[in-house]
Amino acid sequence: MDSLRKKIIISLLGLGLLLIAAWWFMSATPAGATDLLVYKSPSCGCCGEWVKHMEQNGFRVQVRPVEDMTAIKRQQGVPPAMESCHTAVIGDYLVEGHVPAADVRRMLAEHPPIQGIAAPGMPTGSPGMEVPGQKPEPYQVFSFTRDEAPKVFANH
C-alpha cells in the first residue's frame, strides 16, 4: 500500500510540475503579440478612435497619455517623415499613426527586419480618421528602419 501511495504522490507531483511549466511557457510567450502600448496626447480624439479600432480587432491596448509626443517619437526612433499623431509599441515593433489593424497583423505574421510601420500624417478614412459623408482618401502605410529609406508596406 505504501508503494502505491508513493507512486500516486510522485505522479501527482509530476503532473503538477508539468502544469506549472505549461502555464509559465504560455504566459512567457508574447500573448500572440497583441499587447499594444499607445503613446498619445490626452486631448487627441482621433487617437482614441484608433485605439477602439485596434481593440475591436483583438488587440489589448494600454494607453499612456503624453504631453510631449515629439520627445516620444525621437526616443523611439520614428523618422520625422513618418510621423503622425500617436506612436505605439508592439513587441519589438513601432506602429506610427492610423495604421489599419490588418497591416499590424501582417507585420507581426511576416516578422520583417524593420523598425516599424507608419501611416504618415492623418489620412482621411484611415482607422480613427473616418469622417461621415466624406470620401476616404487613398493613403499608404510605409515600413521603416533606422538606416534605410521608408518603403511602401500597403496601399489603401
Structural description of this entry:
The longest helix is centred in the first third of the chain and has 27 residues, at 2-28. The N and C termini lie far apart (71 Å). The protein folds into two domains: 1-30; 34-155, Glutaredoxin (3-Layer(aba) Sandwich). Helices cover 37% and strands 22% of the residues. A seven-stranded mixed β-sheet has the order 2-1-3-4-5-6-7, sandwiched between helices. Residues 21-31 have low confidence and may be disordered. It has 156 residues and is α/β, with parallel strands linked by helices.
CATH architecture descriptor text of the largest domain: 3-Layer(aba) Sandwich
- What integer is the average pLDDT? 87
Structural class: alpha/beta
Coarse morphology:
elongated
Query: What is the level 1 CATH name of the largest domain?
Result: Alpha Beta
Main sheet overview: 7 strands, mixed
Name of the CATH superfamily of the largest domain: Glutaredoxin
In total, how many domains does the architecture comprise? 2
Give the distance, in angstroms, between the N- and C-terminal Cα atoms.
Answer: 71 Å
pLDDT < 50 runs, ≥5 residues: 21-31
Secondary structure layout plus pairing:
Blueprint: H1 2-28, E1 35-40, H2 45-56, E2 60-65, H3 69-76, E3 87-90, E4 93-97, H4 101-110, E5 116-119, E6 140-144, E7 151-155
Parallel strand pairs: 1-2, 4-5
Antiparallel strand pairs: 1-3, 3-4, 5-6, 6-7
